[in-house]
Write a structure and sequence with these properties.
Elements: E1 2-4, E2 14-21, H1 24-34, H2 38-41, H3 43-48, H4 58-67, H5 70-73, E3 78-80, E4 82-92, E5 101-113, E6 119-130, E7 135-146
Parallel strand pairs: 1-3
Antiparallel strand pairs: 2-5, 4-7, 5-6, 6-7
Length: about 160
């Protein structure tokens, strides 16, 4: 199994996740259970809203943001040596509609060694790009990755 360590990520790297669908039935089920505001679950109300129709909730959109890059982070062939998240700054720039298609684009903004041995700090910008090429969601994430053990060969994450 390929292991991605702190040293394998470089400022300016751009990685792309898999395309995901905001499946209408799944979106509606998620929103009914977790975020049942009328703009997420009532067609007639949502049609009169500034959005002109039902939109996926922020939580549902965040779930898709986790789902898209799973193939980059955690597969039988590849695993990032993730140690935990430190900070999230999220922005919902454009509504996601049921039936929309999205794909994560991760840009590594900064890497620096941690003050504690065995780990590094990574700051990335994750954008969920919709079918029109627009960022529907962007989130700046700061997280920790384990450093490469002595003698471990370098790896490159799939783009």
């Amino acid at each position: 199994m390929q292991r991605i360590h702190f040293e394998d990520l470089h400022e300016g790297d751009v990685l792309r996740g898999d395309a995901v669908l905001a499946d209408p039935e799944e979106t509606m089920a998620y929103d009914r259970l977790n975020d049942p505001w009328p703009i997420h679950v009532h067609e007639a109300f949502a049609a009169r809203s500034p959005f002109g129709g039902v939109i996926a909730s922020g939580g549902c959109t965040v779930t898709l943001t986790y789902r898209s890059p799973i193939g980059l982070f955690d597969t039988p062939e590849r695993r990032w040596e993730f140690l935990g998240g430190l900070d999230w700054k999220v922005r919902f720039a454009k509504p996601v509609r049921p039936g929309g298609r999205l794909r994560a684009r991760l840009t590594i903004l900064e890497t620096r060694p941690s003050s504690r041995p065995g780990r590094g700090v990574v700051r990335d910008l994750t954008e969920m790009i919709d079918q029109d090429g627009d960022a529907a969601l962007s989130v700046e994430v700061v997280f920790l990755l384990a450093t490469r053990p002595d003698g471990a060969p370098p790896a490159r994450p799939a783009a």
